[in-house]
Structure formats: C-alpha cells, structure tokens
Amino acid sequence: MENERVDTVEDFYKPVNTLDLITKVSFWISFVLSFVILIQQVFSDSFMEFIIISYLLIVIIHITLSFIVDYVMLPNAERERRNQLLTDSLNVVFSSEVTKNYYNNQYLPSIKRLGANIFENSLFCKEISKRMLNSERIKISLYILIWLTLLLIRKTDLQVIVIITQTLFSSELLFNWLRLEIFKKNVEAIYGDLFHLYSSKIEDNQTELASFIIKEMVAYESIKSLTHIKLSTRIFRRINSSIIRKWNNIRKELRMDKLE
Which residue, 10, 11, 19, is CA-closest to 69? Predict the structure, then answer.
C-alpha cells in the first residue's frame, strides 16, 4: 500500500524496550527485598539467606542490564536511526534499513530536507516527552512527599529512611525525571529554532542555511546521547495521528510543501 508506514529501524528499539522494562521491574523487586531484609528477624535463617542472595543477584542484574541498555543497545539503535535520517535526507546510503512515510515533507534530498526531518522529529520528541513528564512529575512529587513525611516522623526507623532515600535519589526515579526535563527543554529549543528557520526565507544564504541545520542536528543528536531518554512507545502510538495532523498543519502554515 502506497500510504503504508514502513520503519525497519524500529526493530532495533524493541529489545531496548524489553530490557528497559526488565530493569525497571528488577529495580522495584530489589526495593521490596530490601525491606524484607530489614525485618529479617521475622523469618527463618534459611529463608533470609535465600532473600539476601536473591537481592544481590537482582541488584547485579539491574546494574548490568542498565549499562547494556544505556551504553550498548540504545546507542546502537540511535546510530541506525541517525544513519537512516541521513540516508532519507541526502539520498546517500548510510544504512541498509528502510523507512517509508516515516518523514513527512515534500523536499527533495537536500540540506533543507534534513532540517525538515529534524524539525518533525523534534515535534514528536517534544510532545511525547511532555506527556511523559506529566506522570513523572506526579510520581516524583508523591515520592518526595512520602520521604519528607517519614523524615518528620521521629519514630520512623532510620534504616527505612535510608532505603527510601537511596530509592528516591536513584537513576530510576529522581535522576530519570531530571534527565527527562533536560531532554524536553532542549528539544523544545531545537523545535523553536527550526520553526523560526522555516518561517523565514531560508533560501537566501545556502552556506548559512547548511550551517544552521547542521548545528541543530548536532544539538538534537547530542541531547539524545546525553540523556539516554527512551521515549514511550505507548504514548507515541496513542498520539501519533494527532501529531501527524499537527505537523501537516505546520507544513501548510509555513508553506513547506511549496517547492520552487
């Protein structure tokens, strides 16, 4: 079908999402087990030995998988996405992967098409991260409220506070939220810069145009590499059609499809 969307690069992200889910589950299992260890006097020695060994194994699994996802599998997937971006934008083969109707603009292969593709990517990243942050901010606020409440209650066991503090300030909670905030702020800036670019007469100075677009591409790829943000596939699928409509309206507003 002519309008069918094809994206073989997506296959590189599927194992990333699977392992990322496992790391999150292992994190919360270790959190629960840490409380079980705290009340070890309630259980038999043999059971506690099993719990402690399980806790250590799960912590090791969590750390190992987090490293593999953030520094091996996700960069590999992002590299394939970047290669396909350049292949589509410049008609130079950097990747054997195939996309069809993934990027939506009418520019022929050129630096202007590269900029338009990054422009569209930044719109999707901005909208998905915004929705991800809505739930992240609520969760973090709730966790901080619980943490402060326990701190104010003098009878709270100090070990309980230590466990919750370690959990709250881990990469899975507070730092993950901060990385998402940084990511959203930067992709919003890239989106704003490219909106301004395509609303002006970008043909006037080709050298300046190319320099600007390359700068935005570097900024876009750098913030993805810095934050290791894995955008929600569930949110993407839910809002995909509405964002496509928004992108089409932007193209119409900026007359991006009027080729000269």
Answer: 19
Question: What's the rounded Cα separation, in Å, for the pair 3 and 113?
Answer: 20
- Domain locations in the chain as residue ranges: 7-102, 104-260
Region 231-242: mean pLDDT is 94
Q: Which helix (H) or strand (E) holds 6?
A: strand 6-7
DSSP label at 70?
Answer: I
pLDDT single digits (tens) 186-221: 999 999 999 999 998 776 678 889 999 999 999 999
User: Across the strands, what pairs with 6?
Assistant: 100
d(CA 124, CA 233): 12
CA geometry: angle 246, 248, 252, nearest 5 deg: 115
Q: Are 227 and 182 in contact (CB under 8 A)?
A: yes
Residue pLDDT, tens place only, 26-47: 999 998 998 888 887 778 888 8
E strand spans, 76-132 = 99-100
User: In the beta sheet, which residues pair with residue 100?
Assistant: 6
Quickly state the pLDDT bin for 81 (edges 50, 70, 90): very high
Q: Cα(179)–Cα(74) distance, rounded to whole angstroms?
A: 15
Q: In which residue are the tokens 């499809």 written?
A: 257
Q: Angle, to 10 degrees, between the axis of helix 10-38 and the axis of helix 45-68?
A: 150
Closest C-alpha among 63, 104, 108, 69 to residue 89: 108
- For residues 87 and 93, the answer to whether their CB atoms sit within 8 Å is yes
Contacts of 54 (CB under 8 A, 6+ apart): 33
Residue 100 gets which letter from DSSP? E
**Whole-Å CA distances, 93 to 55, 98, 106, 133, 210:** 47, 11, 19, 36, 20
